[in-house]
Amino acid sequence: MKTKNHKILAQGKKELHKRLVPKAWADQPAPMFQAVNLHYEMSEKSRAIGFGGIGAIHTMVTRLGLDQAINEHLSLLKVHVPYFESDHMLNIAYNVVTGGTRMSSSN
């Protein structure tokens, strides 16, 4: 095998090892999905995707307290490193809302 190929393979192994090292996350004080101050604009020259409203849906979920209710009534995780139950559940729900058909891109 050529030296260049060995270097490419070695670099790939090095990057894989770095990704597989366990993360030392601290217990998170709040969910990762946070409501932010959203601004919507329209432009004559650019087009947007139809899922830009997911931010507005998340703002509604936060104002209704659905995320807090999920965290209070659903106990799946012993430690929130870094995600809360609401982060996982809302991620699944938002995937469905935006037309998602699977949880990962692998077959």
Question: Care to give the gist of this entry?
Answer:
This protein has 107 residues and is an all-alpha fold. Helices cover 47% and strands 0% of the residues. The two termini are 31 Å apart.
Note down, in words, how this protein is organized.
The chain has one domain (25-107). Helix 3 (66-73) packs across helix 4. With 107 residues, it is mostly helical. Helix content is 47%, strand content 0%. The model has no long low-confidence stretch (mean pLDDT 81). It has 4 helices and no strands.
Helix share, percent: 40-55%
Content-based structural category: mainly alpha
Tell me the number of structural domains.
1
Largest sheet: none
